[in-house]
């Protein structure tokens, strides 16, 4: 079978949950004897023009075509983020070139939903994995600009206002005009390509009505839509996506687990954070909570992630840590180095503020490492309080500090949590399951 993956980004220069999951599936399918091709975006906001060519390479046995784009220079910059005729035309030609048997989309964030129509015009079976909330939320995260969660059940104006909040045009229009006039003005700007492409409005002044129509119509064309959690499914249902959506839990690439031989000795409890260094992921909350417990020799905090991706936020975290002797910034690591990372970590902390389900939760479970996580979204679906980990109220520094303190002070608690960690679905199991899904879709379309 020749399987064609479309996704937003791909390793090695882009690393995240979706990227790792997509590559794990792709590599597993190659190992199972299938032909695989990946199409993704490499450069996303650099280059003199929108289209800056492509590169072909093979990453870890998987052939990848990487498109170099600059979204800020697109013809219709805001609409092209969700409905891009250039990408649709490009894909139509590429499909004729590679002639796949089936297409699997794991993210549309950079390629837009316009990729779906040419796939279906070519009469190709299509599987879509909803690895994020992009089809519901232009910000992708269902986290509002005021850092409060959104359930997607909002008006078009609510959505536009969230995107524009803090921009100069939103601020001065709010000061000058009564709200009804402001709403009409900003909605009108969002539907005008000449105005909405101006600096300060790009990516924000978006035609929300048009976007919602495209999202619903596009996703409805998929032959099979998959999602990894009940929480995620409920959010899509609440946002009006009525097509069948099946829950299929992620598999995890645990090939590195052979190098894991248990925890390295430590007198201190080692709390760890690993992931994107961004406000929505909550590392600032974790540092504040760790400092609040007054830990000294009995606890350490190890933070893995790229502090330079957002230099201002990285500097903020360093300032919060204030050269605390027990807080260490360890940078990024290759996925193959995960065994050593978890050997040096007794508890993983996932303090995300949004409807997150970080795949690293199950990587921690695979090494018998319990998790402290926000009582929110997919995190609370998989981390069970006082069973395989502890939960704290989303965004509550004091509650997080309390849970950290419990691990340090309650005798036997850490061992109790470790003993009840569930088995983890491997990528090999996920590949077997996905092959069955593909075969079912192919049979239905034959």
Keywords:
446 residues; alpha/beta; Rossmann fold; 3 domains; 8-stranded mixed beta sheet; 6-stranded parallel beta sheet; 14 strands; 38% helix
Q: From the 3D coordinates, which CATH architecture of the largest domain would you assign?
A: 3-Layer(aba) Sandwich
Quaternary state of this entry equals: single chain
For the terminal residues, how far apart are their CA atoms?
Answer: 14 Å
Give the tally of structural domains. 3
Overall description:
By secondary structure, this protein is of the alpha/beta class. It has 3 domains: 202 residues, Rossmann fold (3-Layer(aba) Sandwich); 41 residues, no CATH class; 165 residues, 3-Layer(aba) Sandwich (Rossmann fold), CATH 3.40.50. Helix content is 38%, strand content 16%. It is built from 17 helices and 14 strands. The protein has an 8-stranded mixed sheet with strand order 3-4-2-1-5-6-7-8. It has a 6-stranded parallel sheet with strand order 11-10-9-12-13-14, sandwiched between helices. A hairpin with a 2-residue loop joins strand 3 and strand 4.
């Amino acid at each position: 079978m020749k399987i064609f993956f479309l996704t937003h980004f791909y390793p090695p220069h882009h690393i995240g949950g979706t990227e790792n999951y997509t590559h794990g599936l792709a590599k597993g399918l190659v190992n199972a004897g299938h032909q695989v091709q990946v199409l993704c975006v490499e450069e996303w906001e650099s280059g003199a023009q929108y289209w800056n060519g492509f590169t072909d390479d093979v990453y870890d046995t998987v052939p990848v075509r990487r498109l170099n784009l600059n979204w800020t220079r697109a013809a219709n910059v805001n609409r092209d983020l969700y409905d891009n005729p250039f990408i649709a035309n490009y894909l139509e030609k590429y499909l004729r070139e590679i002639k796949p048997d089936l297409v699997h989309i794991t993210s549309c964030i950079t390629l837009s939903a316009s990729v779906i129509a040419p796939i279906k015009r070519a009469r190709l079976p299509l599987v879509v994995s909803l690895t994020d909330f992009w089809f519901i939320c232009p910000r992708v995260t269902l986290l509002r600009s005021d850092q409060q969660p959104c359930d997607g059940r909002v008006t078009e104006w609510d959505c536009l206002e969230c995107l524009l909040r803090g921009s100069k045009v939103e601020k001065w229009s709010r000061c000058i005009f009564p709200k009804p006039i402001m709403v009409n003005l900003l909605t009108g700007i969002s539907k005008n390509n000449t105005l909405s492409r101006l600096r300060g409005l790009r990516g924000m002044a978006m035609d929300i009505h048009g976007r919602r129509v495209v999202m619903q119509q596009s996703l409805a064309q998929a032959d099979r839509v998959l999602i990894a959690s009940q929480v995620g499914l409920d959010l899509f249902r609440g946002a009006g996506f009525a097509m069948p959506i099946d829950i299929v839990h992620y598999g995890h690439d645990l090939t590195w687990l052979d190098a894991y031989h248990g925890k390295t000795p430590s007198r201190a409890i080692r709390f760890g954070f690993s992931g994107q260094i961004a406000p929505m992921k909550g590392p600032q909350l974790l540092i504040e909570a760790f400092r609040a417990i007054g830990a000294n020799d009995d606890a350490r905090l190890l933070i893995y992630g790229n502090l330079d991706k957002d230099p201002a936020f990285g500097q903020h975290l360093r300032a919060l840590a204030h050269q605390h002797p027990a807080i260490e910034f360890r940078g990024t690591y290759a996925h193959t180095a995960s065994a050593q990372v978890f050997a040096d970590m007794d508890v993983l902390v996932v303090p995300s503020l949004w409807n997150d389900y970080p795949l690293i939760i199950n990587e921690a479970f695979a090494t018998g490492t319990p998790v402290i996580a926000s009582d929110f979204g997919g995190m609370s679906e998989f981390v069970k309080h006082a069973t395989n980990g502890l939960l704290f109220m989303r965004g509550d520094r004091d509650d997080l500090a309390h849970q950290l303190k419990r691990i340090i002070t309650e005798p036997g608690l850490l061992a109790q949590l470790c003993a009840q960690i569930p088995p983890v679905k491997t990528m090999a199991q996920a590949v077997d399951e996905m092959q069955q899904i593909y075969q079912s879709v192919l049979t239905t379309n034959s």
